[in-house]
Every structure is written in C-alpha cells, then in structure tokens.
Amino acid sequence: MKEQFTRKRIIKSAEDLFAAFDFSDVSMRAISNSARVNISSIYYYYHSKEALLEHILKATEQLIILHLPCNQKMDNPIDQLVRFTSDFLSRLLEDSNLILIFLKARNGNIEAGLRGYIDRIEAMIASTLDILLDQCRRSGVITLAIPNQIIINVFFIMMSEAARYKRRYLLANPDGSGQEALLAAQLHQLRQPIEALFRYILV
C-alpha cells in the first residue's frame, strides 16, 4: 500500500513538472523535492527520467485509445468530424498534463526509444482524423483544396492551446475550491471557436 502511494506521488510530481517545463530542465532532484520522496526511492522505482517519461507516455497512449471515437455514423459527415474534434479535446482536457507532456515531447528532442510512443500516439489521432476527412470529401462536404495533413496540424495546435488554457486557469486558481463548474463552462466556450474554425476551413 505504501509502495503504491509512493509511486503515485512520484508520477504526479513528474507529470506536473514535465508539463510545466522542458524535459531537459527537470531533474530527478526536482521531482524528489516536489513529491517529498527520498531521491533514492525514485531511483528504486524508476532508474532514470526517461523511465518516468516512458511510464507517462504509456498512460497517454491508453488515454488516447480510450477517447478515440466509436464508429458512430451521422447524417452529416462534418458533424461527425466537428463532434470528434470538440468532444475529443474536452475529454482529453480532463487530464491536460498528459496531453501537454505528449505535445512537448512531440516537438522536442527525446531518445529514439521514447520516440516510438510519440509516433504511435500521433498516428492514432492523425489516422482517425484522416478517415473522417476522407468521408467529408467523398460526400462533397469539403470543397476547399486543403490537404488533410494541414487540417490535422491545425487540430494538434488546438490540442496544445486547449491544454495550455486549462493549465493557466488551474495555476491562477490553485485551491480549486468551487471552480470546477466555472472551468467546465469556460472549456465549453473554448469548443465554440474550435467548431467554428473547423466549419470555416472545411466548408
């Protein structure tokens, strides 16, 4: 029981620090201080920063799989695309630290062994969007000659901005008391420009 509690504290502190700072700027000592755990305990469970990041990326991969859309068909393909982009972002924002860590690692220099997790996560999201975009094209909903990859890149920018938005909000309200409903409402407002942007560039 104590071992599980210690692991959770280590992972939570690592997630917070990796989300807030560049991976290269976070030390095992900083994680130890944040978790209030002896640094030797961290090395006992995770032999390096890379091992901690690998654990977190595995969790991110499972989170992405969990929130990928089912094969639900809608009358209008663009409704399915917009529903996916907005709902997917909202669900992922429930654990925005994981998404920020993924995005930082995606744009940073990490070792080849960890790059495989990044590539798989990105491929899962991109292939889902690619399928939805192709459905829109076949039905004639998309009329602009915008390559799918450009639209997919826009979605990754949306992911980044939405996760940063939530992090800024939580940092400004560290106690979190009575703020969950307000945060949910503000995140809902964030979905509106996302939906409007997709409808504008696609139709």
Key traits:
single chain, 203 residues, mainly alpha, 9 helices, 0% strand, elongated
Give a quick summary of the entry.
The protein is mainly alpha-helical and 203 residues long. The protein contains 9 helices and no strands.
Can you walk through the features of this model?
With 203 residues, this protein is mostly helical. It has nine helices and no strands. The longest helix is centred in the middle third of the chain and has 27 residues. The termini are far apart.
Write the layout of secondary structure elements.
Layout: H1 2-20, H2 28-35, H3 39-45, H4 49-67, H5 77-92, H6 96-107, H7 112-138, H8 148-172, H9 180-202
Helix pairs in contact: 1-2, 1-4, 1-6, 4-6, 4-7, 5-7, 5-9, 6-8, 8-9
Approximate strand percentage: under 5%
Would you tell me the overall average pLDDT?
77
User: What is the terminal-to-terminal distance?
Assistant: 55 Å
Shape estimate: elongated
Count of strand segments = 0
Number of continuous helical runs = 9
Oligomer: single chain
Low-confidence stretches: none
What is the SS-derived class? mainly alpha
- Biggest pleated-sheet summary: none
Helix % is over 70%
Overall radius of gyration: 19 Å
One letter per element, helices H and strands E, the order comes to HHHHHHHHH
